[in-house]
Amino acid sequence: MPVLLWAPSLSVPNRRSNQLVPFSTLLPTKTLITAASGTGCSAYLDHLHIQGPASQKGMRLHIKPSCHDLPLPGSVCTIMNLNLHASVLLQGMYKYLERCFSDFRQRGFVVGYDTRGQVTSSCSSKRLAKLTAAVLLAKGVPVYLFSKYVPTPFVPYAVRQLKAAAGVMITASHNRKEDNGYKVYWENGAQITSPHDKEILKCIEECVEPWNGSWNENLVDTSPLTRDPLEEISKIYMEDLKKICYHRELNTKTNLKFIHTSFHGVGHDYVQLAFKAFGFKPPIPVPEQKDPDPDFSTVKCPNPEEGECVLELSLRLAEKESARVVLATDPDADRLAVAERQENGRWKVFTGNELAALFGWWMFRSWKANGSREADVKNVYMLATTVSSKILKAIALKEGFHFEETLPGFKWIGSRVKDLLDNGKEVLFAFEESIGFMCGTSVLDKDGVSAAVVIAEMASYLETKNLTLAQQLTEIYEMYGYHISKTSYFLCYEPPTIKRVFEKLRNFDFPKSYPKSCGAYGILHVRDVTTGYDSSQLNKKSVLPASKNSQMITFTFQNGCVATLRTSGTEPKIKYYAEMCARPEQSDKTFLEEQLQKVIEALIENFLEPSKNGLIWRSV
Fold this sequence. Notes:
This protein is of the alpha+beta class and 620 residues long. 33% of the residues lie in helices and 22% in strands. The chain is built from 18 helices and 28 strands. Strands 21, 22, 23, 24, 25, 26, 27 and 28 form an 8-stranded antiparallel sheet that branches. Strands 1-10-9-5-8-11 form a 6-stranded mixed sheet, sandwiched between helices. Strands 13-12-14-15-16 form a 5-stranded mixed sheet, sandwiched between helices. A hairpin with a 4-residue loop joins strand 23 (521-528) and strand 24. Helix 1 crosses helix 3 (125-137), helix 7 packs across helix 9 and helix 11 (352-370) packs across helix 15 (469-480). Keywords: Isomerase, Magnesium, Metal-binding, Phosphoprotein. GO terms for molecular function: glucose-1,6-bisphosphate synthase activity; intramolecular phosphotransferase activity; metal ion binding. Residues 89-206, 236-342, 352-478 form the Alpha-D-phosphohexomutase alpha/beta/alpha domain. This is Phosphoglucomutase 2 like 1.
């Protein structure tokens, strides 16, 4: 359960009167928390956004169901109140963890942080980490506090390795420089899910007054319960990484050059170490973006998913160095973007779905080539979120392993993977379309560090076969069927409008009826995860658990297209995900692309009606 403390600097104006436009995309929001202090200060959890100076004295937190667009007061938060909310949050977590674990004081708690920090407010990730540690140290709980910034994957990895009760990562990932927050992991090393999230919220409500010692940052330096896991975790993480290194000898000899950008975040040092673990020469860093910079000075937004517009410095350096592959980790190094120069000199920036096809093929191929003869393919699993490409499903059907879908968000993937591991299953790979990848199971979350070095090894291997990543992707699609996808979104700042759009789809021709067609395209099945309905099931119930806190409807068309409309839990968006899934014998890519575009146009015109509903289009 990631929690985002939203602390815009004093220079940031309101984007729209009385509207909050949150930018965090860590995971869907579950609950809104508002401070009843007469100042309009509000916050919400999974992502805890704080705005407006609220008086410290007498402030109370009240919980109500989450929404996707929240009031934004004219003023911004003070650092005192940000620290107060951070302390209150940890007090609630402490209370819940103490209830869940009788040995909490023996097992301890992991705290990591990235390199974010606000000059105007002194609100750095490191400071919030120390405040977090202080709350727990004051209660006699051992705290594994990293002495240096780390990638987000290091926290869930450390939780499992150290057998801690839980852990938090102080980060806002690839979001705006004004953001900061918490990403929470349970004892299993996966992001927190229900019922823990709801129970923590209840405990936060019961702990709104700061405890004695909660503000004493000096405890971090003076308490014997403070432990630094950096050296131990870094060492064993890199050793574990070698388990998914299959061609070390080739890696040491490759002539391929790799460019790496860490987007002013934590990734540089750790990607360098990962390349060393795989036997590679160090990747060439983008000098302007190598070192931590909380202002993200060289990019408009620190999100590598945005493509060429944010990879300009990387691509320029690659051309100068005659490097063919560019690797970009986001600021907390849990996601990875990849670009490859093509024979015509142009750059191809792979989508998350395309990279997943490559990773899935590679991890299964490596498993087959290096596994024991007794290994049973029916014991092997791969996973993806339901809005991601179905390419892994196609590979699984042909190769004989299992494929599963989860709700959007890596918390669902991590928890399900842990269940599978506990039942003796072998999980090779999992992903979400927004460039989040899990190679192997050392970390039960997306991991940009491991993904970067795995794709480098894949590229090096393919080089020996005179193949590029793009050429191999084409071979995968020709073998398992083309999967052409597109993702985009519309901005909508009016919650009633968003609700009206989805309610119309549930009452299309008459009450409680879903559309049977969209323009000229017939609809075969409808799945509404919000209500738990699925017309493809005999009992008409969705296999995925119902999720009433967000809107999500999926349409399976008669022509093979699958399209999902869903709201963002943290942003004022209606997103669409559309994919044409073809059989291997259907190799006319141009035709499939045309069909996909026509379905998307029909979907927008008939279901979203942007002009009528005042939706603002934004391409991804």
